[in-house]
Design brief:
The protein is elongated. The longest helix is centred in the N-terminal third of the chain and has 23 residues. It contains nine helices and five strands; from the N terminus they run αβαβαβααααααββ. The chain is 46% helix and 9% strand. Helix 1 packs across helix 2. It is mainly alpha-helical and 198 residues long. Strands 2-1-3 form a three-stranded parallel sheet. Strands 4-5 form a two-stranded antiparallel ribbon.
């Protein structure tokens, strides 16, 4: 199912961008769609696309991560941008919000709704005016595990639905970390990481 979803998404995105090419600025090499990425994951997905679109020529370029954003910006400014390019969460806004850089993908919304793509994967590629400019191919779900005896002792309940209320957003998460730390007199922490103790 995941492979089918990725293939459908790529087909929709590539179809739109092959016509519009980075809002009309991209390189034109006949019927070749030029794709840039900083990870080989996209290359593997392109294989799925090519399998269902054998008549479309795709040129894939892997750019080292440390120079990717600057090389992409230079290519866009010089009018030599690839037709399709990957963007990382760390710099997605600078491309999505730049006028005339990203194609309008609003026509894809019905297909994306049919694929039941998660809202937050669309939000990251939506500009401040509400226009869809990029589509994330990746969703990263999270999970939290806890010891029920400790939850009952420090939160007063071990019921999963009630415990979930303590972690419903980051503010509640941080508040819960303080509760556990305080009630256990620092003997138990929500988690320990390289960035700090909560």
């Amino acid at each position: 199912m995941k492979k089918k979803w990725i293939a459908l998404l790529l087909a929709a995105v590539m179809g739109t961008l092959s016509l519009s090419g980075c809002a009309g600025q991209g390189k034109e090499e006949g019927d070749v769609i030029e794709v840039w990425s900083f990870t080989n994951e996209l290359e593997q997905m392109l294989d799925l696309y090519k399998a269902t679109h054998p008549d479309v020529k795709v040129k894939f370029t892997l750019v080292p991560t440390d120079v990717y954003a600057s090389k992409l910006k230079n290519a866009i400014q010089s009018g030599n941008a690839p037709n399709v390019f990957a963007i990382e969460e760390a710099f997605v806004r600078s491309f999505v919000e730049e006028p005339g850089v990203m194609a309008d993908l609003e026509d894809l919304k019905p297909d994306l709704e049919e694929m039941e793509i998660l809202d937050y994967t669309l939000d990251v590629g939506t500009d401040f005016d509400g226009n869809l400019r990029a589509v994330s191919w990746q969703a990263a779900p999270g999970a939290m595990f806890y010891r029920r005896s400790l939850a009952k002792e420090y939160l007063g309940t071990d019921d999963p639905q009630k415990v979930q209320e303590y972690f419903q957003d980051m503010d509640k998460f941080m508040e819960t970390a303080e509760i556990i730390k305080e009630k256990s007199q620092g003997n138990f922490l929500l988690f320990l990481s390289g960035m700090g103790t909560f």
